Amino acid sequence: MAAVCVGKVSVRLFRAAAPLCAPRSGAGRTYGTGPAGLRARLPRGALGCALALGGGLGLYRALNSSSPPALQSLRAEPPAPDIGADLKLTLYQYKTCPFCSKVRAFLDYHRIPYEIVEVNPVMRQEIKWSTYRKVPILMVNGTTQLNDSSVIISALMTYLTSKEKTIPQILSCYPEMIAKNDSGKEVIEFGNKYWVMVNDAYCDQLYPKKDSRKEEIKWRKWADDWLVHLISPNVYRTPGEALASFDYIVREGKFGTFEGFFAKYVGAAAMWIISKRLKNKHNLQDDVRQDLYKAVNDWVAAVGKNNKFMGGESPNLADLAVFGVLRVMEGLEAFNDMMENTKIKHWYRRMEKCVHHNPSHAE
């Protein structure tokens, strides 16, 4: 393949570092997946676990496989079920991590079989073999390790599109580098992380419109750099919302009894306080719901009134990224408010049907 490789929040309250889901830092934004991912140093024990999960909240609710009959005609045709069947994939994750949710959305939409290893967020023994200590981590055929949610998705999309190179060969186009963030701390960066590495012939098939590739990259970055910042301040907006959020985290995560108790009660209280700092950190409005509403309405406007998805008749990588981030609020008050007070509902329901037509993982 003639592919061309182009070119957290640090919480002081309990010395809890940024989320483990590949956090990023940048000008005025220090939360998310990305090239400036901080190596989080967690306090030992349940409180550290609670704060780490709180900072990188996913809160992914398992969505019902069925959809309302009225939406059946809106469903886009999914990819062929045998795509990626030659890959043996193992996803190391926290179920409640938004960046893991992004990867699952991609894999499920493309019907790529994969296994899940749920990581204990305190001890992280399940990934003790890895020098990269954040999730998601994707192992390919038991030998090749992919880190960072956006790199994982870009590399797999490159492979699915052309299959002219192996995953290890493709991975060389996303080099891991060490840089310094605005605070002078060393961080991990991944080059070209939003690029699907295909030659001109495949590029024309994948991006038939003039600006479709540019828009896909722009909104994938937006999901990582901005949208994800809005999750924690909204789901921890009040003490009641914080407790409801941690109740779900504890039930769905891999916790011991003692860890779960402290994660739920101590973590919820701590993250309610920390959410106020996040609001100031990212210059959010006093009513953080307004920032969330504006963000999703901006996304809907970018998709366009006459398009089912940003990708047209089928979702592209930006659609999957935004959906992966937003669905982490499923079942919580913030999600219900978003659905009722923005224009996101129809797009979201279409995405829900596309991604969950046939989940491909086995736990």
Structural features, described:
The protein is of the alpha/beta class and 363 residues long. Helices cover 42% and strands 8% of the residues. The chain contains 13 helices and seven strands. The chain has helices spanning 46-55, 98-109, 149-162, 167-171, 200-206, 212-225, 231-235, 239-252, 257-281, 288-303, 317-326, 333-341, 345-355; strands spanning 89-93, 114-118, 137-140, 144-147, 176-180, 186-190, 361-362. Helix 1 (46-55) packs across helix 9 (257-281). The chain is globular and about 55 Å long.
Which tags fit this structure?
five-stranded mixed β-sheet, 363 residues, 42% helix, 7 strands, alpha/beta, disordered N terminus, two-stranded antiparallel ribbon
Q: Brief overview, please?
A:
With 363 residues, the protein is an alpha/beta fold.
Low-confidence stretches: 1-47, 49-53, 55-78
Q: Helix tally?
A: 13
Provide the β-strand percentage band.
5-15%
The radius of gyration is: 19 Å
Structural class: alpha/beta
What summary fits the major beta sheet?
5 strands, mixed
Q: Within the largest sheet, what's the order of strands?
A: 4-3-1-2-7
Helix percent reads 40-55%
Shape: globular
Q: What is the typical, i.e. mean, pLDDT?
A: 78
- The H/E string reads HEHEEEHHEEHHHHHHHHHE
Spatial separation of the terminal alpha carbons: 34 Å
* Secondary structure: number of strands: 7
